[in-house]
Amino acid sequence: MDSLHLMYSFLFVILILFKDVSSLTISVSQTMDKAILGDNPFTLSCTYTLGSLEQFFSIELQRKRESDTDFTTIVTFLNPSSPLNVTYAESSLESRTVATKPTEESKTATFVFNTIECDDKATYKWKAFYFDGTNKNVEKTSTFTVKVNTLFGQEEHRSLSYVPSTNLEEGDDVVFTCSGDVGNEPVGHLGWFYYLGNDTSNAINASSKATSTAPVYVSSTCSYTRTSTLQLKMVKEFNDILVRCTVQQDKYDQHGDGHVQTENIPVYYSPKITAIEDRTVAEGTELLTLTCKADAYPAPFYSWLLPNGTVTDGPGLTLTSLQMGDNGTYTCVVYNTFKSNNHTVNETAYIDISSTGGGAETTKKPAPATGGDDNKSTIYIVVGVVLGLLVIIGVVVIILCVKKRNKPKEIEEPPEKPRNNQDLSFYGNRPDLVSADHGMKNNMGSALNSSFNNSFDSSSDVKSRNEDGLFDVQFDDKPRSRRPIQLLDNMSGSGSYGDIVNPRV
Description:
The chain contains 3 helices and 32 strands. It is mainly beta. About 20% of the residues are buried.
């Protein structure tokens, strides 16, 4: 008996040494690194390998979210020989998952999410239990995140606006604001593009000019939202511009993973007129056409002002049978109206009619187009200069007149006259100035006229008669009026005397 016992022991040792006695091992797998939120199936699986002397019991699938402190079992897979399939520890998973226990052939347990929810993002641990003389277990983990595709394609998850939103004109600064869902894993960005001239195939990327806010997490959608603004200064080339906001989660182009865009936006601008050439034509030219062109929005109105004052409407002007009287400046006036204002520009062309006849039509180099505002500015400057000069001249004239009026008058001093009281004496008898001898009358008259006419109006001292019965007459040196002194005949027949009276001045 002892010999037989020893032999069995030896055979057992040989079997242990040469048979497959490796421990149970497992391998795990999953569909991809990221599950996609929504009705997007996602599979976790675990396959085990069992040694010949080991007995497999069960596999547990455990989960640990970011907010959990430890792993918890969500489902248990029983061994193939058990009449039971699986046991759910979390009943909420039963309606949207399928758990399948391993078979003898596959030795693989699978767990399929038919619908992915936000909370499915977690670390999952597979744990296999077996017996090889003692109870043992082996475990492996796998982690997956939940990708949330952007919901930007849905109107309720996006918005686009701009301010000001109406009556835009050249020079306005317009701020475009775009907001919406940008997804999760990864968190997307908002991009900006605009199109000119209704050409949606030629997108202009303006994303670098935009400003975006930090993403904001929204728990109800497991996603993030962003807001971005773009400011554009309106120019005439932006008339009918179309601005697009795109979300770029996986696609980084003008279409992105979803977009929203404006309607075509009108941009008002005043007319930009093209220069018109001066022309020289021969007298008698049958036909001459002038054309005025301008770029404006809204579309402009045209009129022509002819040298004779005539006004015609339309961009084209046709002149026939040109004569010398048709010489002159022809003015094209262009205007449009927006925001209750008229915006006017004009351009001129000089038509020179040559009387030589037979001369070829020539043109002069066009002058730069000038807007109506520039012409008005020039006129204002000229009028201001002329008025300024007139004011200066008026002030100078007034100053001269005032000075002349306030200047004191100079009294012209007459030259000193010779003494007129020499040899002037009367004798006792009163002279007969009428019947006296003609020669005496002339002599005496000359003497008297010479003396009195050259005298001045003054007070004089009349002396009493001298010894000879005559009066002495004396005059001072003060100049008086040049009016002659009148001699009055106040002598009576009985007296021999004469009165000299100065007239009043």
